Here is the input.
Amino acid sequence: MSGFVNDIPLYAAGLATTIAVSLLGIFISVIVGIFLALALRSRFRLIAIPARGYIEFARGAPLALVLFLLYYGGPQFGLLLSPHVAGIVGLGLYGAGPFAEIFRAGFSAIQKGEREAAEMLGLTPGQSFLNIELPQALRVTLPACVGQTINLVKESAVLSVITLGELTKVAGTISSITFAVVTPYLTIALLYWALVETIARLGFYAERRFTAKGS
Amino acid sequence: MDRGLAGVWPALLDGFTTTVMVSFSALLLGAPLAILLAAASRGGRVPSRLAGLYLSFWRGTPILVQLLIVFYLLPFLGLELEPTLAATMALALNTAAFQSEIYRAGLQAIPRGHIEAASMLGLSASQTFFRIEAPQAIRLMLPALIGEMQALVKNSSLVSVIAVTDITRRAQQVAASTFRPLEAYASALLLYVIIGAVLACIGLLLERHLSREAKR
Here is the structure.
């Protein structure tokens, strides 16, 4: 039991890393996802078709292989990434597809009249997008975004396969030192569980606030 | 095409069999448990609480961690399973949680009027379930089930961590022996994407078939 107490700082550091890399990965996912969703709406096939292709490709690709490809395959064409950069970029590219689908649905839920009204009022397309469409799309898609955020936090456990020292890697390290296998993995399972429940609660809270403001 | 690349495919196709076997058996093994869970969550206070706890745990923790827990915990319970079996079990326990939500939602989507009408017409409870509820629910659940199958194939790549020789593990071996990780991992990735696309096609065909049946 004293061993477990000694390991608490390790778990804390692993949890902090998990939260940090997940946040950065999710940030990349959201940005790339918004651009992909916009590309899907494009009138130009040369833009819309590659975006659709990316989303379909990402749907079938396991994160572990995306990470192997970036981290171990990258150096073959001169792309030397640290585990952190490879992990965050990999998680970001992996999560972008589902986010794009969510935002596509969000944008299509906004009535065409809103954009026309914005245009009539003299707003530029950029202003109309940032001030009229994006805020509404984010509000409509909030529950789905929370779900996807939870998914990516869970998927971040896979980052341990490229030696990134997040929570799952920490459990592996502790078990290889102490030869205890069940306790470390059960501990991190509880930590992930708590993290996921926290995000879900925050999501409910945000949803209530936003919808109250919107109505 | 050099020697390195030519060696990739036989190994990957060998892994392909394992990947398909593991994910498909997990799907089938998870189904009865999922139905039990769905029934429990519609049942009384205690069963629905227990089912809720199960769902919350298996949906709220990473699959990789679940896999490692099952793999390391089984020997403690006196079960010495080989990695492939342990991996299949872990995936089955995981997919049961996700499938049960699909079944619950599918059965919930059927209008109560259909069930009332069936009982008015003198159908027994089991007749109502098999002839009225199930056929409609299957059609409603099909897209979600195909999605779950795709997710399962993707998730099964993590069994490579406990040395099951699936596509991902084979790709790692090829990468290590040929020193060409790029080709090995890119080919493996492509293989997963192809499996996902094939599943999507099967899903579309089945959907079209079922809706044609329904119209008749």
Residues 8-42 of chain B form the longest helix (35 residues). The CA atoms of residues 7 and 65 of chain B lie 32 Å apart.
